[in-house]
Amino acid sequence: MGNLVQAELRKTTTTGLWWGLLIPTAVLALGWGLATGLLGQFFVDFASSSDVDEVSDFLGVSPDQWKVSLFGMARAINISTIFPMIFGAMAISGEINRRTITTTFLTAPSRMHSMLAKMLVYVLWGAIYGLVIMLFVSVGVVLTSESGQLPDAGGWAMLTLVCVLSSILMTMFGVGVGALIPNVAGTVVLLLLYFLVIENVLHGVLAYLEVPAVIGFLPNGSINGLTGSVAVDLFLSTAGVVPPEIEDVLRAIAGAGGALDWWWSGLVFLAWSGIVFAGGWAVTQAKDIT
Amino acid sequence: MHDGSGLIAVQNLTKQFGSVTAVQNLSFTVSPGSVTGFLGPNGAGKTTTLRMLLGLVKPTGGTATINGRPFHQLGQPGRVVGAVLEAQGFHPARSARDHLRVYAAAIGVPDAQADQVLGLVGLGTAADRKVGGFSLGMKQRLALATALLGDPQVLVLDEPANGLDPEGIAWLRTFLQSYARMGRTVLISSHLLAEVEQTVDQVVIISRGQTMFYGPLEQLRQSQQQRVLVQPSDVNALAMALRNEGVQTIEQLPDGRLAVSGVDSKHVADSALRAGVSIYGIQEEQVDLERLFFQLTSGQYAGYAPAPYQQQQQGGWA
Ligand SMILES: Nc1ncnc2c1ncn2[C@@H]1O[C@H](COP(=O)(O)OP(=O)(O)OP(=O)(O)O)[C@@H](O)[C@H]1O
Ligand SMILES: [Mg+2]
């Protein structure tokens, strides 16, 4: 197994895809980070200057101490992890497209061995992408935010943890989908459509039907919940007593409408990744490589 | 995991792609120590058979084993069998050396092995070039280098001469023969008998997914029946005379000549003399292997088993 893992690792490092996708990831993360700080600043200025004192009253802190950056960071992480997911999606579909899968299967004890080795290597890459995303989001946010709006040390640690987790899970999900739909273009288009459009529409419909709780169990809903819930929790921990209606609004802002606790969200998405991977494995196992 | 015998055994192998029967009840074995040619026209089922042997395609029926085991039970397949297959891919952005190092890691052989096989197939100077820029022949050599990485006991090559220059083909020929002489097993497919005639000791000839001939090449050579082609002054009289002497296989060719099998030209000439028939021309036909191969494998899409000489008439043979 160690041999196969090394082989899979070499596959990823001997082509330019990893940095070809890492650069836009970093740029996107940085952009969102910068925008987050600016928007947060704008919001805080607005809240402080106008008569929204009632809000600040029951949040129990003055607006300039609101950690509004948390919401933008959660959003930034959600959007940026699309890239590691695409990277993962190319793992198996790319090999099938280029027909290198033949040699891969000829040199592995079984197809399952190949797929597991790939999964391990892509978990590692997911973590690397996650760290890079966190780094660039943080730089963007720190550059444009007042220190009062930034999380404390514990908050940073927690966000880093969920960012890396989220990135790993998204990568794994991508690997599974790439095995399930062994076609690069098909996989990438489907994933982008689903994560950027289809599920957002679904969220709207579910909210309209007044069953927002379901959202937290959908793939995008659960992965957003992982980071979003942490952001909301961190925000609330310094914001005093908040009525449930306001909490729901905050969750929606964080992109975690109807979401569960962060670790529950993570488990739900892990289950989705597991289902997709199992499907991908079944397809790969039965496939005639001609 | 496996018995180390180097034996390839294909038994009642069948593969159905939807309504297409690619391989039908195919059986043969390949022994170590010899080069076996796997021959058949386009679409005969060669690639499908080899891919089933290598665990890439699931048989509809029957078994294919290497060292007594199906491919997925070999444990470390890269060290047991090396394969060059049709349409085997390379990542165009990877250099030849990197490509080999990826699979060297998978097989578990040291990286130095990558450079060694590159040198062996004559790609030493192209090691750092990206495979995307390789010519067909260079890719074929790289595929062969990949197959040799694990120093396997069994080599399976699907049309390996594709794209090779004459020098490359000559090199491959000697290489495969010496490989087999080390007691290893070499199975090599081709749709041209002439291409492998000088390389192989054994042949398996298939057509329409079925075995047509299986045995030593020598035996195939000897199985060909000599014919005498004769142009007599009176066709009927000569045919009658020969029949009276017990010669049964006589055929009239479109150009008016008689084709007589089972006897030599001297016999035919003597019969003609006794029957008072003049002979304007006589020759002993040289049926070459290629024609024999053609006879064995023809009618792929015709749906009937052609009689040997009927085929030649259709081909405008003269
Ligand atoms: N994936 C597939 N789906 C459907 N039919 C297939 C598939 N692969 C092969 N076939 C069919 O199976 C038959 C045998 O094909 P195969 O590639 O094994 O022939 P071959 O002997 O290798 O021919 P060639 O000399 O052209 O390489 C052909 O009729 C082909 O169309
Ligand atoms: Mg073929």
Q: Pair with the most extensive interface?
A: A-B, 26 and 38 residues
* Largest sheet composition of chain A: none
User: How much of the polypeptide of chain B forms β-strand, as a percent range?
Assistant: 25-35%
What Rg of chain A is obtained from the alpha carbons, in whole angstroms?
20 Å
> Structural class of the helices, strands and pairings of chain B?
alpha/beta
> Percentage of helical residues of chain B?
25-40%
| Number of domain modules of chain B | 2
The overall number of domains of chain A is 1
Please summarize the sheet with the most strands of chain B: 6 strands, mixed
Which small-molecule species are bound to the chains here? adenosine-5'-triphosphate, magnesium ion
CATH superfamily heading of the largest domain in chain B: P-loop containing nucleotide triphosphate hydrolases
Rounded to an integer, what's the Rg of chain B over CA atoms?
A: 24 Å
Second CATH tier, the architecture of the largest domain in chain B: 3-Layer(aba) Sandwich
List the secondary-structure elements of chain B in sequence, H or E: EEEHEHEHHHEHEHEEHEHEEHEHH
The 3D shape of chain B can be described as elongated
State the end-to-end distance of chain A.
26 Å
Quote the average pLDDT of chain A. Answer: 86
Low-confidence stretches of chain B: 300-318
- How would you spell out the order of helices and strands of chain A? HHHHHHHHHHHH
- Strand order within the widest beta sheet of chain B: 5-6-7-3-8-9
What is the chains' assembly state? heterodimer
